[in-house]
Structures are given as structure tokens and as C-alpha cells.
Design goal:
two-stranded antiparallel ribbon; Glutaredoxin; alpha+beta; single chain; peroxidase; Thioredoxin peroxidase; 209 residues; Peroxiredoxin
Length: 209
């Protein structure tokens, strides 16, 4: 089920911050009332598509921060695995230089609660608890507003890398809507015309575009 329009699930979990420090009890609640959050899941440390996305978010981090938006990542790996990957140079497949928090969801409960776990628990014929599927997170991206409400979500299958530019565009759209009370039409970008949510507004927009 979609989380759009609902409170983002609460969690407290270990994370690596600033690319070098493990902290316990990291939570998105620290941003409520202060910042929007882009919270994204990736499948696994030391893989192939994942570092391209993680490093791409880092390359655009200043753009998110300029808009007052926090970027936070998560996977089902341990915090020690995150730290080891963060200390591995890019030319060796690592993500050295990433500074935003990376959450360790080893119990897989965060991924489950956000609806991005690539499988589920079940019982076999012997009554044993088993996991069916792949015990990692899909490539889920969640845009959470300052009230802790999920305003947009996108979930990609494991081989499909996401667009960080599109995530930034959606941040701009959300902030425009909240600032001006207008709605954003298809392919809207910062600096382009938006419209009022009325018949007259739609008519004027379609006439001009």
C-alpha cells in the first residue's frame, strides 16, 4: 500500500553519519518541523548500480541542502558494512566521500514498514518460518515534508537505477506548491509556469502552453 499522504513510519536504528561515525538510534524525527527529507533505500553495499546512485546523490547534495532538504539513505546491511564501504575508494567500487547518513536496517523492519522489502516472511509445510523473495530493499525513494508526511514515493525494481534529477524536480514542485498554493502540471520545472486548481486556471495554462 502507498504511504503517500500518511505519516512516514517511525524508526530508531544505527547509522553512519559524515562518512565516518557510527551512531545509535538515528531517526528521521529529528527533521520534523525543520526540513523536508529525501529518504531512499538501496539493495546492498558493495554492489554495482547502488554506488552510482549513492554517489549521484552526493554530487547533488549541495542542491538539496540549498533547498533545506536532508538526504538519508538506508539498506539492510550492517552499520559496519556501511562504514567499510564508505572507507573504500571509488576506483575500487567504494563510496568514499559520501557525507549524508546511511541507515542500517539489519532487522529489515524499516524496509518492511516502508513497503520496499523485496519479499516477505512465510511458513513452509513443516511450520518453519522462511523468507520468500530477496531479503533486501527495492530502490524506494520517499519525499517527506516538514510535518513527517510522505508526499511522493517511487519504487524501482532491483536492476533499475533512479533519476536524482527527477527527485530534485519533485522537491522543487513540492516547495512551489506549499509556497504559492498552485499545482504543478506535467513536466513542470522550477521557473516554469504552474497553475491554479480551477477550471479557469487549467484553461489559461493549456491556452498558453
Amino acid at each position: 500500500m502507498s504511504l503517500v499522504g500518511k505519516k512516514a513510519p517511525i524508526f530508531n536504528s544505527p547509522a553512519v553519519i559524515n562518512g565516518e561515525e557510527i551512531v545509535e538510534g538515528f531517526s528521521l524525527e529529528q527533521f520534523i518541523g525543520n526540513k523536508e527529507v529525501v529518504f531512499f533505500f538501496y539493495p546492498k553495499d558493495f554492489t554495482f548500480v547502488c554506488p552510482t546512485e549513492i554517489l549521484a546523490f552526493q554530487e547533488k547534495l549541495a542542491e538539496f541542502e540549498k533547498r533545506g532538504v536532508a538526504v538519508v539513505a538506508a539498506s539492510t546491511d550492517t552499520e559496519e558494512s556501511h562504514l567499510a564501504w564508505l572507507n573504500t575508494p571509488k576506483e575500487q567500487g567504494g563510496i568514499m566521500g559520501v557525507t549524508y547518513p546511511i541507515v542500517a536496517d539489519t532487522a529489515k523492519t524499516i524496509a518492511h514498514n516502508f513497503g520496499v522489502l523485496a519479499g516477505e516472511w512465510n511458513y513452509n509445510e513443516e511450520g518453519e518460518l522462511i523468507f520468500e523473495g530477496t531479503p533486501v530493499a527495492y530502490r524506494g525513494t520517499f519525499l517527506i515534508d516538514k510535518n513527517g508526511i510522505v508526499r511522493q514515493e517511487t519504487i524501482n525494481d532491483l536492476p533499475l537505477g533512479r533519476s536524482i534529477d527527477e527527485t530534485l524536480r519533485l522537491v522543487d514542485a513540492l516547495q512551489h506548491v506549499e509556497k504559492f498554493g498552485e499545482v504543478c502540471p506535467a513536466n513542470w520545472e522550477e521557473g516554469k509556469e504552474a497553475m491554479t486548481a480551477t477550471k479557469e486556471g487549467v484553461s489559461a495554462y493549456l491556452t498558453n502552453n
